[in-house]
Amino acid sequence: MPTKPMGSSQKTPRKNTTSLVGQQIVMRFFLAINELVNRKVIRGVATFTKKYDIDRRNFKLLEANPERKQFDVGWVTFIVKDFGINLEWLIFGKGPMFKNENKEE
Fold this sequence. Notes:
This protein is an all-alpha fold.
């Protein structure tokens, strides 16, 4: 098996896509954003992205293509801490979307 010589500039190609589990988290993140808009907690995506200094164009591209590797995990803290999204729901898909809601609701 050939090896790369030390100092070689050849790089191993990296996949530029997120794992299936990561994609599911990204999709739930955007479901939560859309629900916050539907409940009029935020006016829209522009309100959210401006508040947290997020590039809106990249944000919308990621929503359309959740497999892209550009999700900033810091965004999770914004919706969990500031908007009451249930972290267990966001990460594992279990329980209610909002921390303060019963599972039956």
